Amino acid sequence: MNYKYNCLNPIAEVGLGNLDDKYVRTEKFEEADAVFVRSAKMDELVPGANLLAVARAGAGVNNIPHAEYAKKGIVVFNTPGANANGVKELVIASMLLASRDIVGGIEWVKANVEDPAINKSAEKAKKAFAGTEIAGKKLGVIGLGAIGQKVANAAVALGMEVYGYDPYLSVDAAWNLDHAVKHCKNVEAIYSACDFITIHVPALESTKGMINAEAISMMKRGVIIINAARDALVNEKDMLAALESGKVRRYVTDFPNSTTAGQKGCIVIPHLGASTEEAEDNCAVMAVKEIRDYLENGNIVNSVNYPACSLGPVRTAGRVAICHKNEANMIGTFTSILGNAKVNIDAIANKSRGDIAYTLIDTDSAVPGEVVDALSASESVIRVRIIK
User: What is the pLDDT of residues 261-292, one digit of tens each?
Assistant: First the structure.
């Protein structure tokens, strides 16, 4: 079987090179079986009937209507952790830029480039750009996923006292954290204790605007806040007011907009967090791997709108994948249809995520077309796909 794929943004060739001759590139989005995307907005795009999967070469998926895609049987993947080191390094750089007025000093040199005695002038001017060191300061990390873990561990190595908060901290994430990271049971503990605060959570209804006037009121005077996650997490009008009053010393954001660009106390970076060769390569490789495993084996790993579900590589005579609503007796319906057609089931995997569920079934013989029709007939079934 051949698949058509479309790239809405440039995707690193080191990743696309892992697509074999079964995959043919198309420039027409509506023709694609699979789509690779980075930052392109997909809300206004109309997916074709053939579209099976979208892979975001990055972590955030607010540019993809993934909830609507789930209802159409389109699985949306992301690549968590693939760009984590690049973002971590930018956060460390942000703390240094904010604690010492390096940017101001560099701008002073540019402005005085014609001064023949600039070396002597600099000795007099540099006190205006003096700052503080980060060693010994308290850093609060909100969100201890792939990026937050790396930031916390790097900060410990730099001599900072690190506090972490994540109500959904996984066992694996906990094992990856340096033992020196202090785990906070509520975010208010971060606000009240820390000299630096960095945010690493997704933009959800529950997190949008979480750094607002109320949250800032709980923080230390002179706190430095870093946002390399999503601009929606910070109420930037409240942030500007806090900068003006001196409550916040610096706000570093990786998301330029007309609210913060050029404002006093704001260090605005042009969305460089994952813009490294290594991060782009890692994301591309991971995205291609996810798409291939889904299209060729039906396995779902790192989806944001469907549950993780896998039966490994196909080793039986048949495999069928079913996207369906999470309702009672769906498995019984599927097995009855297969049983009535004398198709023996070798293995089955079923997982759910909210209102959506996914079932993989391995069979000892090929699944006939009439069985596919019978499986598809239920109003609760979104899509049926024969993998083999």
Answer: 999 999 999 999 988 999 999 999 999 999 99
- Whole-structure pTM over 0.90, yes or no? no
Predicted pLDDT of residue 168: 86
Q: What does the alpha-carbon distance between residue 55 and residue 70 come to, in Å, rounded to a whole number?
A: 13
Residues 135, 161 contacting (CB under 8 angstroms): no
Kindly report, residue by residue over 316-353, the tens digit of the pLDDT.
999 999 999 999 999 999 999 999 999 999 999 999 99
Task: Give 57's contacts (C-beta < 8 A, 6+ positions apart).
Answer: 9, 11, 12, 15, 36, 37, 38, 79, 82, 280, 283, 284, 286, 287
CA 23, 24, 27, 32 torsion: positive or negative? Answer: negative
Per DSSP, 129 falls in state G
Rounded to an integer, what is the distance from CA 58 to the centroid of its chain? 5
> Cα-atom radius of gyration of the chain, to the nearest Å?
25
Rounded CA-CA distance 139/161 in Å is: 6
Q: What three-state secondary structure class fits 35? A: strand
Q: In Å, how far are 91, 138, 172 from 175, measured between CA atoms?
A: 22, 22, 5
Cβ neighbours of 24 (radius 10 Å): 12
Give residue 204's pLDDT band: very low, low, confident or very high (50, 70, 90): confident
Q: Which residues share a beta bridge with 24?
A: 4
According to DSSP, the residues that pair with 214 across neighbouring strands are none
Beta-sheet strand order (sheet of 356-363):
345-353, 356-363, 318-325, 381-386
